[in-house]
From TrEMBL:
Residues 332-568 form the ABC transporter domain. It is found in: Cell membrane. GO terms for molecular function: ATP binding. The lineage of its organism: Bacteria, Bacillati, Bacillota, Bacilli, Lactobacillales. It comes from Limosilactobacillus coleohominis. This is ABC transporter ATP-binding protein. It holds the Pfam family ABC_membrane. PROSITE patterns: ABC_TM1F, ABC_TRANSPORTER_1, ABC_TRANSPORTER_2. InterPro entries: AAA+_ATPase, ABC1_TM_dom, ABC1_TM_sf, ABC_transporter-like_ATP-bd, ABC_transporter-like_CS, P-loop_NTPase, Type_1_exporter. Residues 15-297 form the ABC transmembrane type-1 domain. It is a multi-pass membrane protein. Its main location: membrane. The chain crosses the membrane at residues 58-76, 129-149, 155-177, 237-262, 274-295. CDD domains: ABC_6TM_Tm287_like. Keywords: ATP-binding, Membrane, Nucleotide-binding, Transmembrane, Transmembrane helix.
């Protein structure tokens, strides 16, 4: 919490919040003194002039206290909101740089909880800190001193009531704090189930699994609700205990005070003032204890937020990166590359060696799970290799900043991802200042122009995840976005699989004729031989190893795996 406060609170507004809080406390503490004077010197002596002047003073002090409180609330709340805003921005920025390893460490649902619910906990405690946490101790100490100064004989009552209250607060904290901490984890679980249900809603309905999913959600929801009920039930005991102690304390004070007044050794005004201070002491004590109940929950949240912000990136930029020059020509080479997913026993890819140059196409073919996507994901450094060297345009990729490396590469992932917006905004992801002509050209090459025209042109709406387009249309839009970006290496990871044979052939021939792509290296991952047959170099992958490498003709003549794949596909088509 302290770390977050230090980094994100602004000095001047925080200081102003504290200063106005002090004014408010001073006003609250001054009021009982005026009341006491008003009773002893005004009411008891029936001095109407004095009553008017002290009454006026009370009004002014109360009004000033109110204004100070309002100003304090304004600065405390705006600061807390700003801290929340900064934390959300920092988390989002950080997450955008996370590799898959870091993503899977936290999990998407937990990252959402951390950037919403956890930050709200921190915000709430920030407001409490700038109000109650500072106000309560100042008030508590000052009211104790002033009460003692008013009537030391009555302070005996506190020797019983304060320890009773302290024991009650400690007991409540002991039971409630662990529950508050676990509530955050349970929120993660609710989000996880909810998110899975939302993304898989069609599958759930198609398999008639609504009841099963509903009961899975209910379990997570019940778990969260029951923990919350338990925690707040325990905390709710604080108020009755506090009211009881407050009433008993007042009875004790009145009882003792009445004796002293009867003995003529104390004035009525003093008793009234003392009782006000006593209420202030007990309320401050309770506020302070409430804060101590909520601090652990917020500090658990702060830890969860700090864990994300402090996460070291597995894939880091080099300390002295090589600068890109315009002179370099497109090329891609793998030298003895081995790769393994973190925690995996077996190497996912072994002994990869190839070299490909501007204007050439590299195709990667292989069965499911053979390592095709893993291989292409190594090029933009989505994962780091264990051994060997990968060079893009002659630069070893680990010597470039990731920003520079990503400038050289344009990729269509296996699962086409589109963002909500318009066709134009999605295309501008590839090139920020793309003109309409450039966008239409990319759409033509990607065989997407026709359906985009039908959908209403470049301003046609794209729903979340591109849900208003078919799988094949989404793939073509993703391909167009890849093509529009000026790059040295164009990667299409199984991007043609949802296209029919005719569109696939037309698209590949348009890619070959495109000026931009002719100067670049094209990498195509595919399962269909027809998609890869025209490539300059074909890698045949099997279980992470290259079992064949060469042109289509060479592989047809010499490579068994390739021949088997070809035969099985010819037979399939014949059927
Ligand atoms: N993020 C990951 N963490 C751990 N293992 C992974 C990860 N992604 C893939 N794998 C494993 O690596 C191997 C290669 O997977 P990869 O996705 O590269 O295959 P692929 O040839 O692209 O398959 P497909 O054609 O089905 O897409 C598989 O055994 C898979 O289980």
């Amino acid at each position: 919490m302290i770390k977050i406060a230090k980094r994100n609170l602004e000095l001047l507004p925080t200081l102003l919040a504290v200063i106005f809080l002090c004014f408010q406390v001073a006003a609250d503490l001054y009021l009982p003194t005026i009341t006491s004077d008003l009773i002893d010197n005004g009411i008891l002596k029936q001095d109407i002039g004095y009553i008017w002047s002290e009454g006026g003073k009370m009004l002014v002090v109360a009004a000033l206290g109110l204004i100070a409180a309002a100003v304090n609330v304004y600065f405390a709340s705006t600061q807390a909101m700003k801290v929340g805003k900064k934390l959300r921005e920092q988390i989002y920025r950080k997450v955008l740089h996370f590799s898959s390893q870091e993503m899977s460490k936290f999990g998407g649902s937990s990252l959402i909880t951390r950037s919403t619910n956890d930050i709200v906990q921190i915000q709430n405690v920030m407001v409490q800190f700038l109000r109650m946490m500072l106000q309560s101790p100042i008030m508590l100490i000052a009211a104790c001193v002033l009460a003692y100064y008013r009537e030391p004989r009555l302070t005996k009552v506190f020797l019983i009531s304060l320890p009773v209250l302290a024991i009650a607060v400690i007991a409540i904290m002991y039971f409630a704090i662990p529950l508050f901490k676990s509530i955050q984890k349970k929120t993660d679980q609710i989000n996880l189930v909810f998110r899975e249900g939302l993304t898989g809603v069609r599958v759930i309905r198609a398999f008639n699994q609504e009841k099963r999913e509903q009961s899975r959600f209910q379990r997570a929801n019940d778990d969260y609700t029951n923990t919350g009920i338990k925690a707040y039930t325990i905390v709710s005991f604080l108020f009755p205990i506090m009211t009881l102690v407050l009433s008993l304390t007042n009875i004790g004070i009145i009882w003792l005070g009445a004796h002293l007044i009867a003995q003529m050794s104390m004035q009525v005004g003093n008793l009234i003032a003392f009782m006000t201070y006593s209420t202030q002491i007990l309320i401050s004590f309770m506020m302070l204890s409430m804060v101590f109940v909520f601090i652990p929950r917020a500090s658990a949240s702060a830890k969860r937020v700090n864990d994300v912000l402090g996460q070291e990136e597995v894939i880091a930029d080099p300390q002295n990166p090589v600068k890109l020059t315009d002179a370099s020509e497109a090329s891609l080479s793998f030298e003895n590359v081995d790769f393994r997913y973190s925690g995996a026993e077996k190497l996912t890819l072994t002994g990869l060696n190839f070299d490909i140059h501007a204007g050439q196409t590299l195709a990667i073919i292989g069965g499911t799970g053979s390592g095709k996507s893993s291989l292409v994901n190594l090029i933009p450094r989505l994962f780091d290799i264990e051994k060997g060297k990968i060079k893009v345009d002659g630069y070893p990729i680990n010597q470039l900043t990731q920003h520079d490396l990503h400038r050289l590469i344009s990729i269509t992932q296996q699962k086409a991802v589109l963002f909500s917006g318009t066709i134009r905004s999605n295309m501008q992801f590839g090139m920020e200042n793309a003109t309409d002509d450039q966008i239409w050209h990319a759409l033509e090459v990607a065989q997407a122009a026709d359906f985009v025209k039908e959908a209403g042109g470049l301003d046609a709406v794209v729903e979340q995840n591109g849900a208003n387009f078919s799988g094949g249309q989404r793939q073509r839009l993703a391909i167009a976005r890849t093509i529009i970006k000026p790059a040295s290496i164009y990667i299409f990871d199984d991007s043609f699989s949802a296209l029919d044979f005719k569109t696939d052939a037309k698209l590949r021939s348009a890619l070959k004729q495109d000026n931009q792509l002719q100067k670049a290296v094209t990498v195509i991952v595919a399962q269909r031989i027809s998609t890869v047959a025209n490539a300059d170099l074909i890698l045949v992958l099997d279980d992470g190893k290259v079992v064949g490498q060469g042109s289509h003709e060479q592989l047809v003549a010499e490579n068994k795996t390739y021949q088997q794949t070809l035969n099985s596909q010819i037979q399939k088509e014949a059927h």
